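G., the chain you wanted modeled:
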Amino acid sequence: MNTQQFLELILPEGDVFFAVEISGGSVQQICLSSPAALTRAVTRMDAKSPGNVYFALASYKQKEYRDAAGKKKQRTQENVDKLKCFWADLDCKGKGTDYADQQEAILDIKRLCEATGLPLPTIINSGYGIHAYWVLDASIDGMLWQATANRFRATLDEHHIKHDSSCTTDSARILRPVGTHNRKEGAEPREVRLIGPVRDPISLEEFSSKLSTSFVQPQSFREAPAGDMDLNEAAESVVEYRPSSIKEIVQECGLLNAIGNLGGNVSEPLWHKVIGVVRT
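Predicted structure as C-alpha cells:
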C-alpha cells in the first residue's frame, strides 16, 4: 500500500485537508484541496524534512476562521466537517502502560475483536507503535462521529486496550501516513507501513452495534468527580432542578442527537437505554 492508496482509503469526502510537519520546535501546517494533493505534500515534506510528517484524519469546513476572540483558527474540532474511520493509537515502547512490542498490541486488538464482534481493522506499523483503523463505507459528519467515538473509547477501556484515549475521541487528530518515516532523535528512521491485509470498509450501523452503550463525556466538557459520593448521594446533594425538556436534552446531548439523526436506526439494547433516558 502506498501513500495515496492509504489516504484515499482513510479520508472522507471534502475539499479542505491538512498536512503537518513537526521538526524540532517548528510546526508547519499546510491546507490541501484533495487526497491527491495531500499525498504529494506529505511525500515532498517527508523526503526533505529531518522531522516528522502527519495528516489530519478529517475533512474541514473551511481553511481558516476567526473564533469569538478574533483569533485565527484552522484545524480544530469545531471546524471538522466529515470523517470516515475510527482509530486506536497503541504505543509499544515497553514502558509504563505501553505494550511490550507491536506483536502484543496486535494480539490485544484481535482479542478485542473476538470479544466484541468488531471486524479486524487495517493495521499500520507507525514505526514504534500500532495504528488500527476501522474504515467506514461512507463519510459521516463530525457530531455523529464524536458520539460514536465516545462509545468506541468506552469499549476499548472496558476491554483494557492500552490506547491513547485522548487520540481515540479527537476528531481533529493528526497521525502518520503510510510511506512516510518516523524519525526519533538518535535512531534510524522507520517507515510507516501496512501490516497484513487492508480490511473491507464497514457500515456505521455495523460498527456501532458492537460498541459499549456507555457514554464517555468529552474531556473538554467533563466535570470533576463528586468526591466519594455514589450516584444517589450526588443526586440528593442537589437542592433543586428546573423543569426538564426532552427537546433541550436531545439538543445538548451528542449521543441522543446523533441517534436522532440516524432516525433511531440503532441496536436494540442502545434503543432501550435511550427510551429509559427519555422516560426519566
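Confidence is low (pLDDT under 50) at residues 219-244, 276-280.

Shout if anything looks off.
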